[in-house]
# Entry
Amino acid sequence: MISYNIEANPEDIREAKSLFEFIGGNSADAVRIAINRAAPKIRTKASQAIRRQVRLKAQFINNPESGLKVVKATRAKLSGAIQTPSRGLLLTRYSTDPQISGDKVGWLRPPVIPPRGIKVKVKPTGSPETMSNKFFYIILPNSRALAIARRRSSAQIASARSRGTGGGSKGGSIDVAYAPSLSQVFSDVRDEVLPEAGDIYQSELLDAMRFLLQKQFPKD
# Structure
């Protein structure tokens, strides 16, 4: 799990915060409101940056179960975050066949390999890649998810066993194909999103201060 914490540069808001507190404003409430308003907007920016890197749908990235999850601030905990799971994505997620890449089909048996081979497209631009004819479809036993896999050679299994890493270290003969995890892609684009994220939060914090003051001192 990778996480991006939402916060502003204290120096940028010091003067506004001092004035806000001087006239009776509650900084804790302003921070909580600002974080919770800013977080969804920052998630949208991160989702857009991720989709410029990999061919994933916004619906998948913005789903808190599979993609970017917003952790809201509370009165007891004045911090928020955007988190994403670190597990790798099955390469089938990038299949050029919508049935294969989607989640709507419950597979009972692997589909037939197309005559022109299994095609995947990870990047949003460029041409699809045709997988080697050594690859085939399997259904994973625990999740029942459809995966692209190939058989390991005896040498690959022996190497994995000697290193004690990978599925082959336990004698597994099947190598399942994975794409980079969403957290890896999020990490790659985080520096692109950070400056704008700070601006969004700072703007929301100033708006939250104005909102709270208007509630506290309503105009006649």
Summary: The helical segments are 10-22, 27-51, 58-61, 98-101, 154-163, 182-216. The radius of gyration is 24 Å. The mean pLDDT is 85.
